[in-house]
Design brief:
The protein has one helix and six strands. The protein is mainly β. The longest helix has 8 residues.
Length: 82
């Protein structure tokens, strides 16, 4: 049985990949994902590839271009080594 998506779960593009944000809201048809350094994005549930271990894995091919760009910049403000 698939795990239910809950607020606070981390968001990923692949298992074992780097986390890019967290789930802020959950509805029947969509989830709101906070992407670091970019804000909130509403994503259709059809873009969810898997849910397990408090993680939501999204199918990047089903995400709009603006969200994919934001994900690519999610960790830009981090300072290496800190």
């Amino acid at each position: 049985m698939a795990e239910k998506i809950e607020v606070g779960f981390q968001a990923f593009l692949s298992d074992g990949g780097e986390e890019f944000g967290a789930i802020r809201e959950v509805s029947r048809d969509s989830v709101v994902v906070y992407v670091e350094n970019a804000g909130d994005f509403t994503v259709p549930r059809s873009a969810v590839h898997a849910v397990h271990s408090h993680k939501v894995v999204f199918d990047p091919k089903k995400l709009d271009a603006g969200l994919r760009r934001a994900i690519g910049r999610a960790h830009d403000a981090e300072v290496p080594g800190l």
